[in-house]
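Regression test case RT-17, inverse folding.

Input:
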């Protein structure tokens, strides 16, 4: 059996999105600008989940094909045990949008972005571990380096992209006297 990020799994994420968006709008009185940024981040996070957690293979043939690798034996808990690879770069790149996008949802600080990066890395790797334990084999390896690279990508997204974007945005708003009131207000409050 193979689970993909489609069908009932995708539909459950869509239903969750609708419920959360309604709660944000009706209970917390969030603006449509905020909901736009929330939607972008939700779609991004769904794509990260799809990329890092799926497909999930759960059957004896696949287990045999992958050799029934020992989940615990294949785990790497020693930082930088292996060399920096293209996959390492992709782990950094994957979380850059997280560091860039989170300040559009709440007041961001270094501490909050760092915590978000740590939690994201731990949750993604824990998801891979739980999937491997459920399937009783792994073709993805739990690696502490991935957590470190996820944190790095999140911080790069915040310090380089978001701060640069905010500076450029404010310069352009002042230079051309742009009047996107809700967006300008939202960005300057981050």
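Golden output:
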């Amino acid at each position: 059996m193979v689970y993909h990020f489609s069908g009932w799994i995708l539909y459950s994420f869509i239903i969750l999105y609708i419920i959360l968006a309604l709660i944000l709008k009706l209970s917390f009185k969030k603006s449509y600008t905020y909901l736009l940024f929330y939607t972008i981040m939700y779609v991004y996070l769904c794509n990260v989940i799809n990329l890092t957690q799926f497909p999930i293979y759960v059957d004896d043939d696949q287990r045999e094909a992958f050799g029934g690798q020992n989940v615990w034996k294949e785990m790497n808990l020693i930082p930088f045990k292996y060399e920096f690879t293209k996959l390492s770069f992709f782990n950094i790149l994957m979380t850059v949008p997280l560091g860039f996008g989170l300040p559009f949802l709440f007041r961001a600080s270094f501490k909050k972005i760092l915590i978000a990066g740590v939690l994201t890395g731990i949750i993604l790797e824990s998801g891979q571990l739980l999937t491997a334990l459920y399937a009783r084999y792994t073709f993805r390896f739990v690696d502490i380096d991935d957590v470190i690279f996820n944190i790095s990508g999140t911080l790069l997204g915040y310090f380089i992209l978001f701060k640069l974007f905010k500076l450029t945005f404010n310069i352009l708003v002042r230079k051309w006297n742009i009047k996107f009131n809700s967006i300008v207000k939202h960005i300057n409050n981050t």
